[in-house]
Amino acid sequence: MTKNRKKIMPRAAWVFIALALWAAVLVFFFFFLPRTPGKKFARILSKLDIEKPNVLLFTLDTTRADRLGCYGYKEAQTPVLDRLAAEGAMFDYCISCAPLTLPSHCSIMTGLYPTYHGVRVNGNTALSDVHQTLAESFAGHGYQCGAFIAAFVLDGRWGLKQGFHRYDDSFELHKYKQLDLGQVQRPGNQVVDAALAWMDQQKGQSFFTWVHLYDPHTPYNPPEPYLSQFNSRGMSGLYDGEIAFMDEQVGRCLGWLEQHGLANNTIVCIIADHGEGLGEHGELTHGYFIYDYAVRVPLIIKVPSPGFRNLRISSQVRTIDLFPTLLEMTGIPIPRETQGQTLLPLFFQTENSPGLPAYSESMSPNLQYGWSSLHSLRTNTYKYIEAPKPELYDLDEDPGENNNVHYRFPRVVKQYKKDLKHLMEKTGHGAPKPETANLDQDTLRRLATLGYIGAPVAGKKGAKLADPKDKVEVFNDVSAAAELAGVEKYKEAVELLESVLRLDPHIHQAKLLLSTSYVELGQKEKAKIQLDGILKDDPNNIQALISMGNILVEEGKNQDVISLAKKTLSVDNRNTQAYMLIGEVYMNEKNHRQALEPLRKAVEIQPKLTRNNLNLAVCLVGLKQFGEAETILKSIVEKYTNYPLAHYHLGLLYEEKNLLDNARSEYEKEISNYGICYQARFNLGKLLFKSGDRKGYIEQMREIVRIAPKLPEGHLFLARGLLFEPVNLQEIQTLVEQGISLAKTPDLQALGYFLLADIYSRKNQPAKVKQALEKATFYKSQQKQN
Questions:
Q1: Rounded to whole angstroms, how far apart are CA atoms 438 and 434?
Q2: Distance between CA atoms of 54 and 268, rounded to whole angstroms?
């Protein structure tokens, strides 16, 4: 005991004396200081005859620093990254501000902490265009800017496409019934293929290329030969295999630079957004805790100068520092609002400095579960985590953060707590409001069903929020259930969520997921019970109100939908989802005039949201106000040529104006973008029929039957086309009978029986003809009454 005391007390005293210095560092580095260009670095580039170097940035998603060979991991197969580290500067301790992809990338691309840019979790909000991004800075100084994205979580509609001339984020969302942001992805080889094709067109001009690689994210399923090489070590090995595959893809880009003589004129940067739990501290993946496995990330910068080879920098830095560093390296002014600090001076230092204090946060436990959020302040010496049960770790003696010394160093805790609060207040001061993502209605709904979209979960007033450390197993189970729902394994998701709720019946995130799974299993009453349970605990829960409204829209309970939407608006009078629900109800009733006001209100609140403008345009078409509708629709397709249903509705408008060639062209564009858009196929088929192209008509109707087998129109109108040249009356009769069984409206039921009467007539079955005509006449009369 005496021996330990002698070891600890001098260290504690030294640290406490240094705390005042850390406070000064915080003030100096965080509060919007003017920057000066890297004149010394510019002179070095000038001697190498480099006026405007290219910049190639790789963000390695879900990549722990300690799983790369250059960071000391013996099991790694990362020769490309290891070589790059030897040829450039490697930072031993780079700290991310968040363990989630979107918030972390927003900070990398702006040099701002989430406290200021406002994007705290995936999917809920978008980066506001008031913030200047790397791409905007480079584009403003003559660079061609291209981004190549591997996962939907960084889709351009969340704001990061600002400034890019090319933002390659093409994801086939129609393949996914549920949109789990973590699951919609494409492999690194496809991303690199697109990046190389674009860079090949930029030779001869300076470019900024961002390549986002997502392979180490779950599920871990590396391609061969990595699957066979790493499979023997289980999930941990497969994770390493994904990193090995990603390393190969980075090598392809570096090889391209060398092949085209650009390696000596390009700054290459490697950084990760966050790490991965792999079971440490009970966390299987990421997004929950902010221990070092989640926030300590690799940072490697290779510059085109032999004087900066094999630099090993142990001073602590932050991911927000990359933004000003790259700008200073290229001679571009750094915006005054930047909260990161240029790292260029570290390239010239002979000795490492203590480094910069780093802030990290995890908001998911609070915003999505109603538990406490987590916030940390990390220096080279200690890491303090603010939580209901505070944590302090001595990083020299305990780099794995396994021994909480919070009670042994109360003065250290007090000072770090004070500095953390000061940092959060200052970096969040004057922050603009974040924006809503520019999502179409279908994408919005599918994300909302998995709990991504909506207002934050509110803890009960006066209640002590749960410490995430006490809920990690619950979090893992709910996350696993979300993954199951994301791949349409709803029964398994239900079993897991029901077991979670038996242990803790008040987890709203679990109830939302369970409700979604019940809906997909056709058990809407059970789904409504879960949503009712949320609303009983929290009558103002916007996610539950909107989800319930979406179920009731499908059930045709229009007045109940309007009541729920109005309740939502009483909580948040600027909630556009509520206005959209009201507008949708009236549109379904063909009451376009009543729909117009709530739809205009949605546009007024969020004028940049394309889905709001699209819905307004659809309403205006219904009111035959074609001029304004056409202006809106043309604006949409000019900005987002593949925006879902935009070309379809422009086709409807042209069809209403009897501009049939224009209408046909727009329907074809919609089908080219979204082959599963049966509405566009149906209308295109009818136009083909009018023009005498029966073969084209039948092709479209057959495709509708294939992609939308539960749609009665496909069966009935295909049968109608086949009757002109009947080859197999029995096949046609089967189509008609299937269409009748699916039809829910009198007009389609009447059409079905008229077609059936025609078939019976051709079969010379007069009694059946009579019966079919009687039913057709009955449904026709029902149609007139409605």
A1: 12
A2: 8
